[in-house]
Amino acid sequence: MSGDLHCHTKLSDGTLGLEELIALAAKRGVDTIAITDHDCLAGTIRGKIIGDRNGIRVIPGVEISALDKQGKNVHILAYLFDSPDRIEGLCHKNALERKKAGQYMMLKAAQKYPITKELVIKCASGSTNLYKQHIMHALMQCGYTMSIYGELYDELFNPSSPSNICVQPKFADVFDVIEAVKNAGGISVLAHPVLYDNFDIIDELIDAGLNGIEVWHPTCSKENEERLISIAKSHKLLMTGGSDFHGMYNHGTWSVGDYSTPKQQLNELLNYKTKIKRQQKKLAAMQAAEQI
Fold first, then answer.
1. Average pLDDT, the chain
2. I need a surface site. Which of 11, 100, 111, 129 has the fewest CB within 10 A?
3. CA distances from 134 to 13, 14, 243 (A)
4. 77 phi and psi, to 5 degrees?
5. CA distance 3 to 266
């Protein structure tokens, strides 16, 4: 048993609804998934209910957007939280920042290419926010490009492009995110460290209480996998994996379960909080014994 612990739905920047995603997982023989929409907990409860009906274990999760001290993106996957309300406020603030940035980019795109605001919003139907992919989808529908990703995407959304329309949302500080996940009784995992080149901050994140690293991911080469496994083992961190599935908005050709968390690592994640509580109980007993 392995698990795809990084999946997105229409609620953020995926193209499948909760039911469709879970049905796809069932068809592909993937029995454990985590729905990790960006800064969005809306699918957590319903996802579990639909999963139970289809014989799929749906682990509660969310991908929280954050920035480091240099303003670089750092994403934290949060799993198995006991008190989602303790991260909901932070997610809401991030979502507002993303929406504001998305609206600016939509207006900039409309200045370069005649698309309507209404069409972009229609392409974002079902989502709790406005993403670059929705703008690209509108441009596709108007015939300016044949794909979501390609030359036009690079022109508009590659920061090194002289004609980019990028607007960086003012996301939460990554250390505040890790603290919030901890306070919510959750498990924090650094998402796709290769994608945003977060290697330089891993030690600081571990010191702040990071619980794990996403090792198996479409952006991660075998060489980087080995590097991340070495880091995780040396610091006794959890290791996870997932396809970062977005449906039609994928950055490449893969599906649910093509990248996943191996059975051993999945069990370690599922048993992690019980293990920590057992260790804390043992430590408390030892400290009490020393005071006698």
1. 95
2. 111
3. 8, 10, 20
4. -85, 125
5. 7
